[in-house]
Structure formats: C-alpha cells, structure tokens
Write a structure and sequence with these properties.
Layout (H helix, E strand, L loop, with lengths): L1 H10 L4 E2 L15 E7 L2 H13 L4 E4 L5 E3 L4 E8 L3 E4 L5 E4 L35 E7 L4 H10 L15 H7 L2 E2 L2 E2 L4 E7 L5 E5 L12 H4 L2 E10 L3 H15 L16 H7 L6 H8 L6 E2 L2 E3 L7 E3 L5 H19 L8 E3 L12 H13 L15
Parallel strand pairs: 2-5, 3-5, 4-17
Antiparallel strand pairs: 1-2, 6-7, 6-8, 8-13, 9-10, 11-12, 11-13, 14-15, 15-16
Amino acid sequence: MGDINKLRDILGKKARLGEPLSGHTFLKIGGTSDIFYEAETTDDFKKAVVEARKLEIPITILGDGSNVLISDNGIKGLVLIDRSDKIEILDEDKEGINLKKIKKPIYRWESDKKQGTFKYEFKDLDYDESEKSRVRVQMDSGVNLPKAIDFLLDKGITGLQWYAGIPGTIGGAIFNNIHGGTHFMSEVLDSVTVLDLQGGSNTLRIEDLGVDYDKSRFQDTGEIILDATFLLFKGDVDKAKYVRFEWAKRKSLQPRNAPGCAFHNLTQEQKEKLGIPTTSAGFVIEHLLKMTGFKIGDAAISKDHHNFIVNEGKATAKNYLEVMKTIYNKAKKELGIELVPEIFLLGFSEDEIKEFRHPRQLELRKKRLYEIRTIYKDSKKLFSPK
C-alpha cells in the first residue's frame, strides 16, 4: 500500500483510493480500484503512466466504461481514465477544437418489437467513399467518439459515420479496432502516437498496428495510445448524416444498462451448420437456445436484443459471468458451437474465466476477421494474409 500512497502524493488530490468502479461503467457493476485517476490533459495522462510504472504499479485504462465487465473484487493497481479531448484538422489552416464545449449526442429510438434481434442489420446502408479526397485529422485518445463523429460531419468531414451509436473514446476504438457492420476503425487510421514501456513517445504507422477483428497490438504490448491521425474524407455529408442517424437508430436496441454485445457473432461455418439466416449471436440465443427471460440474480438477457445482458438493478459481476457461462455451455452442448466473448473481462482470475481462454476461441476470432471485409480499396492490404 506504501507505493499506492506514494503515487497518490505524486498525482495530487484528484487521485482517489478505493474508488468504486461501478460508477464508471455502463453496466454499473464492479468492485473498487486501489487508486483511481482521471487525467484532464495528455501530459497528466503520460505522467500518471510513467510514475505508476516507476513504482511497478499495474495500470488499467478505462475509456467510457463500455464493453467491460469488472470483477466484484475490483481491479488492482491504478485505474486511469484519459479525458484529453483535442481535435486538430490538419489542412492548410490548422483548426483546434475543444470538445468540452460540445454537448454529447444521444441517439435513442424505440426498437421494433416484432422484428427484435433479427432487425439488427446494416448491409443496406453500406457504400464506398474511397474515391473521395482525403483530409487528415488528429485526435487525442480521450476524445469522445460520438462527439467527434457529429463535430466532423458538421465540418464536412466523413468516414466515421459507421460508428454512430457506439459509446467510447478514440483510444478505446483504436485499442479494440472497433467495427460497424463491415467497417473497421483501422480503415481510416494513418498513424498512432504511443507511450512505450520506456516512457518515450513513438509514432506507429497503420501497417504496424497488428489490426484484427476487434483487436490491435495494444492489447498485448503494454503501449499506451496518446493520440492518432486519421485519413478521413471530404465525402457526401448529407448521405453520411443519414447513415449516422439510421445506423444509430438500429443500434438503439442496445439497452442503457449493458456494456455491449456479450458475444461475437457466429462464423459463416457456424451459421451454415445451424441452417439459420444470420450470423447474429442474439438470434441464436433468442430463437435456438430459447433463453428469453433467463436471468441469474439481477443479470438478465435483454428481451430487446438477446446478445445483451443487462443489470436490472443489483446484479453482481458473478451473476453476469454466470449468465455468460450458461449461454456458452448451452450453445456448446445443444448446438455444438462455441461463442466467443466480445466484452473485456477485467479483474478476474484465470480460473474464473477459463472457458474463454483456450486456443479454439482465438481461432474463431480469426475466422470472423476474414469473413468481414472492409470495402475501402486502400485498406484491403491491412486484412490480407501475409
């Protein structure tokens, strides 16, 4: 605990001990952190990382708290949030923007009760912008993704509309190489500035990021994302705005009290094996496993989208994980398929999550990668086998 106190003294009064992490996630579940710190600037963010490493304190970085399930036992070491939010349009006249003055957009529509999970499709909205002229935009890792999408569209800049309705930060989007339909964030990335393990800053080109289906090198290397430069488009803004709202409308099936999809969608091989019309994991959970209404404690499968597990009030991480394991085991036993978790499981022991750690899970992730192709011509090289 001495090193934790020393880090608190270095970071100042904004650093808090024993912070409940449930208040920093969409799911509202999770134990406490040893020490918690929100960095308002990139310099503060870098300082926190460097000082924690000097003291050999483990670091966990949270974005907006989506896409994660935190153990009831909390997270050891430093839990760090990056609130830096600078955007710079790198054309002839550089323009700096402070997103703190911009209201975060909220996309909410009523979902279609008749179609339910099966309605969760985007193919009809897809189109190619690759022939449009490009514009370079630099963004801090702490920039809020929904804010950035709306701001850039208002500036006539397209390319991020595919990620409307996805909560989180730019850093988190790169870390996970998030996807919207057939589109991956890496399509429009040019370079990423990182803090390496020695405390120095390096710039990595897109070809060096090790992008995969919901994966990048940053999940393995310990490098910390500081900012990124994007190659976006001077595209059809009206069309992009339509896609942005329609995309978010369809994603509004996501309940507010859930972290995101619990499992990745199926591979084409799994879909054909089951003889179903979609790769949607939610479709499988609803129509084949018939788990509508299933719950453990207050962790329940959502009736609006069956690939979401919601906290109905006082769910624990143990409740939530048991629901995931029940779905996984039922799919394996009754259907002969394995489902792969899409959310990150933080603070759990390897024994608690051993079902989701074997090599077969990695193989299934890779299959999904090669089945979901980006449409942008200049990014195909990122997804071709070497």
